[in-house]
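>> Question from a student workshop board

For tomorrow's exercise we were told to take the sequence and the ligand below, predict the bound structure, and bring the output to class. My setup keeps failing. Could a helper post the expected result so I can at least see what it should look like? The ligand is zinc ion.
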Amino acid sequence: MSTTSAFTIEQFYRFLEQRKLMAGKCLTCGKIHLPPRPLCDSCYGQIFEWVELSGKGKLLTYTIIHVAPSQFQTMAPYTVGIVQLEKGLKLLGLISDVPLEQLKVGMDLTIDFVACRLDKTWPQWQRYCFKAV
Amino acid sequence: MNGKPLVSIVSAGLSKFGKHEGLYAREIFALALKEALDRCPKLEPKRHIKAVFVGHMGESYEHQGHMGSTAADWGGLIGIPATRTEAACASSGVALRSGIYAVLSGLADVVLVGGVEKMTHRTTAEVTEYLAMASDYPFEQFHGVTFPGLFAMMATAHMNAYGTTEEQMARVAVKNHRHALLNPKAHMQKELTVETVLASKLVSWPLKIYDCSLITDGASCIILTKPDLASKFTDTPVHIVGSGQASDTIGLYERQSLTSLNSARLAAKIAYEMADIRPENVDVAEVHDCFTFAEIMAYEDLGFCKVGEGGKLVEKNETALGGRIPVNTSGGLKAKGHPVGATGVAQAYEIFLQLTGQAEQRQVKGAHVGLTHNVGGSGATAVVHIYRSD
Ligand SMILES: [Zn+2]
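>> Workshop helper replied:
Here is what the output should look like for this input. Compare the format with yours to find the bug.
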């Protein structure tokens, strides 16, 4: 049982700086939360342990964003998708380095950690994206 | 409840939807209120109206929060309890629901519910950013996903699961633009072809600019009362016989389904059961077509067709005026416009006109049962109401 670091969104992003994709497992009911949360939405337990995920998954759906929010305009067009990870968990992220004609629902992807820093008004969190295996 | 009226609508008002250059939200709200008051001369606003609920999404547009009291103030109603409701694009659907709570609680027997948004003075980039605030910040906005992007991902999933096509989505735009030609209050009076929609600029593939609803200024309001008081104010009330509101995860990525909105399904189930009405009994519906694809998904979530067959329903013209179940006779969010906070009650306004025979050129003959479906964000909120005339 790990209680040294809080099971928060902030901590989730700190782990990403160490190139680790971490979920929180509720030790009361066993539910795994991605992102971690400090209160289990299933049993209201507050005791968790960290579970490291492989970051490998399959593309569930995607879109190619042409009209972007101001912070992202220099990147447009870019692809965003929802990825099915292990243990029934899902995560949304940028999909980088996949040519448009190769984008396909069901394709294998893996997480990557990127040093992209945006406008200072946004949190300076470690960013992740997904790339082809 | 067995279809008994929860509350009755005795009047309704809507500002012109479009660009109101030089007007503030509160001033546009006053235009909608004035129509509702003129329509109901027996109502003395300062004496009868006991509470106001106003849907308003964003402080960012005018640097103005606190829209409940602002609207009450500029509507000549200071003194009464005034509440702003916010649930993204379902802000005034939730205002309506709150008004029903207020009437049924017995604390207020006549309630004004409405909504307003002033958007067109902002750039598209600013509006894109403000609208995105209705989605999850740390796991969606932070990664550059936009509002069209979220619905586009649902569209991609639906295309992949059921073979829904971009052409079927385009047909929703064509239909709603055609309906809007019959609505003098609609923002966009422009006929579209499938080819024009398909060739229009990409916003977030597979959605193109003509798949998106409009950035619009506008306000809406309706006046609710207890069913046994309705005859005091009008001979032709419209009763709300079913009301459902439901929530879902704020992040789209956590949902069980990416091809359906569980919140809408839940809200619809509650409303249908309360009203004792089945989908096939609905004569006319206003659904949340923030994007063309969203209307196709709404058909399925509301039970107007089987799961996966929403695209075919619009292809067969069943949801056009003259079809089996006309949807978005007002032009919908797509062509009437989508002043976010005003939309939910603007849908109720259209149903009020339809069920009282006042919809003029776009009147659905003999319409007796109506439905509204208002979605907040990517579906973290959904509100469904069912209406019946005497
Ligand atoms: Zn638990």
